[in-house]
Amino acid sequence: MRPADELRDAVPRPVWWDDVDTGPRSEPLIGRQRADLVIIGGGYTGLWAAIEALTEHPDRRVVLLEQDWIGAGASGRNGGFISESLTHGIAHGEAMWPDELDELQRLGRQNVEQIAELLQHHDVDADLRMVGKTTLARTVRDAETLRAAVPTYTRRGEDVCFLDRDEVRADVHSPVFVGGLRISGGGLVDPMALTQGLRRIAETLGAAVFERSAATGIERSGAGLTVHCPRGRVDTSQVLLASNAYPPLLRRLRAWVLPVYDYVLATAPLTAEQLESIGWRQNQGLTDAGNQFHYFRRTRDDRIVWGGYDAIYHFGNAVHSRLEQRDASHRLLAQHFRQTFPQLGSLPFTHRWGGVIDTTTRFTPIFGTAYAGRLAYAVGFTGLGVASTRFGARVALDLLADRVSERTRLKAVTGTAVPFPPEPLRWTAVQLTRAALAREDETGTRGMLLRTLDRFGVGFNS
């Protein structure tokens, strides 16, 4: 069967939405409201911000505004990888913040531990499994790179093990992998179940959630701010901006955050015989080594979620629901899946979808304030935000409180990213960089463009 044919019957929506209620569960904001804190964006960052703000000050009036419905964006569409890293990987952290990487690693591990504790405390069934991850090499060159990274991981407190060709194929039964790096930290989660669980916690603590309530403007109002929506407004003391990949209300963020689309497939549930044929008994998350990489994992009903490789930017920072389906990217994913697991040739794909990722030139989030400290933002998690958005939300709350903390002292927090150029240079720069990354994957040689970007602190080291 040709790739185009085998995707014909795939449902164009995330597999995570199958057994849950989707769509808005709250009314839009109508009329005038008053709040101590308005959070703009109902994804992970916004939900964590509401939870942390109300845990610290239970009597605070917190209003959360979501332009669509909770879970419609990246928080309900991602691969569900829980990473302890706050730096988009050890290698990237070594390149960007070597002097404080130990502290960043400690805070990242602590962050994941506290997430697990909170979910358990509130009885959230998000299928959280602390099973770690294996990064897999498809070439001898990538395998040697993984082997050479072991001392760095170990020095930074990570429990890792290099797998040679025989060892990696004994674990994951695929003819394409020649090495791997088994990382014990981190795990997997059902991203939509996590989103719904966080919403329940936030509302239980007292957050007022308004869906279909896009924030259309912010203006100063006396000693505070007013946030406008299509049918109402909120007068507030403070605003936390958590819009991430979506068009920001703060003009400066348009230069720093680039929305790119990631595409995903999900298979039908595997039979017992099919599961036996692929090994993968540790059920850990898997990714390829290389710049253009796949991520894949099993679900609680033994499907395989298979995504990544393409990262598509649309001219003018375009973000729209019609961009969530892309035949060329989905067909390429199907082709790569069949090459990786030829023994699953008859396994159908049942779901196909896409989602938008907020990326920065340094591949990690940026933080800051505006309106004389009355607004704070945490944006740009670059595809690694399932856990790190909690850390980011806490940073933003620190900034609103004008509080010096172990988080706000970090250069990874106080620094910023190199801005993206304006259009049409932006689109051209993205295409040239994508081509350079693909060439490095093919040849193993880091070309002049990537070396130049390295010198300017533009991050492609992970």
TrEMBL record:
It comes from the Bacteria. Residues 36-396 form the FAD dependent oxidoreductase domain. This is FAD dependent oxidoreductase. InterPro entries: FAD-dep_OxRdtase (IPR006076), FAD/NAD-bd_sf (IPR036188). GO terms for cellular component: cytoplasm. Gene3D superfamilies: D-Amino Acid Oxidase, subunit A, domain 2 (3.30.9.10), FAD/NAD(P)-binding domain (3.50.50.60).
